């Protein structure tokens, strides 16, 4: 057990945990986005997708809680790494090396914490129905929960859409650096690969963010409507 403690409490071990949890969360984002984009296919397609998820019963909540635990672990390892780095360099340099670092890399902990807050809000809104409980009881023509109507009515509120859009931009800032650095943290670092990863990863991150943002924007302008 002592070697495990030394490994996973070291800076290298923490970086591996942060990278692994970050990669898992990114794959979840891709899957979540794929389902959400079904809103463009219409109410029936999106409600069928929502019904399939709901049919998983307790397994769905196990997955939700598991994802939340992974996200908390991701944020905590980032905080621990930040503290270790500060402890190893208690006196600030005369010329801070962070000047050359990107804004995204300097704000990883902050953007991660904000994103965690957004996830809790997202669960309260569309899963627990604490934010807008009035839209939770709608049923479609097949007797399924009308998730499509709930989503459209939710995003027709400019304040709600604004929260989602701003949160997605913050997530994009986090992902643009996180995707670039996780390969190095996992030991995947090669002169022929790393430069391409650094160029492609931010593009992938912002493409995912654009996909999520397209939904509330499309509701606001009437492309997605009841």
Secondary structure layout plus pairing:
Elements: H1 2-9, H2 11-36, H3 43-54, H4 58-88, H5 103-106, H6 108-127, H7 147-155, H8 158-185, H9 194-221
Structure keywords:
single chain; 226 residues; mainly alpha; 3 helical TM bundles of succinate and fumarate reductases; elongated
- Fourth-tier CATH superfamily name: Fumarate reductase/succinate dehydrogenase, transmembrane subunit
List SSEs in N-to-C order.
HHHHHHHHH
Principal-axis shape equals elongated
Structural class: mainly alpha
Unreliable runs, pLDDT <50, ≥5 residues? Answer: 93-100
What report would you give on this structure?
The protein has 226 residues and is mostly helical. The chain has one domain (2-221): 3 helical TM bundles of succinate and fumarate reductases. It contains 9 helices and no strands. It has helices at 2-9, 11-36, 43-54, 58-88, 103-106, 108-127, 147-155, 158-185, 194-221. The N and C termini lie far apart (57 Å).
In a nutshell, what does this entry contain?
The protein has 226 residues and is mainly alpha-helical. It is built from nine helices and no strands. Helix 2 runs antiparallel to helix 4 (58-88).
